[in-house]
Amino acid sequence: MSLRLVLRSGLVAAGIVTGMLLLTPAPAGAGEAPVYTGFLSNLAVNGYDPVAYFKEGRPVEGTADYTLEYKGAEWRFASAENREAFRQNPEHYAPQYGGYCAWAVAQGSTAKGDPLNWRIVNDKLYLNYNAEIQTRWQKDAAKNIQSADRNWPRIIE
Description:
Elements: H1 3-23, E1 26-27, H2 50-55, E2 63-70, E3 73-77, H3 80-88, H4 90-93, H5 102-106, E4 109-110, E5 114-121, E6 124-128, H6 131-138, H7 141-155
Antiparallel strand pairs: 1-4, 2-3, 5-6
């Protein structure tokens, strides 16, 4: 076996391991950032306007024209009015669990929250990883919210 083949095999194996690590949810107590922003990004909710879910009942992309910083992340809004509403009451409009997947947090882990897979339950915004996970989460949303509420403080410590 040549040195080149060994190196190439090692790089492929390292790439596979790295990819697996990126796809594996973090365990509770991993010290996650309080707001999910994705890899190499500082945008909360992937740049979507969190106020729009409540006002328009749908995801609306924010714009760089209307931003503010909250909990170390940049939040974007579709209008100055929405930005001001968030500024006045960020705890109301920000997605629960910092925008991480509500199902993953209920399981004691974290995963990205997808702004297109969302629900408002009891006037709170929840994001999920994808449509399949959201369906699973919604089967017993109340129980999953209780579990996630218990797990969340440990996850961000």
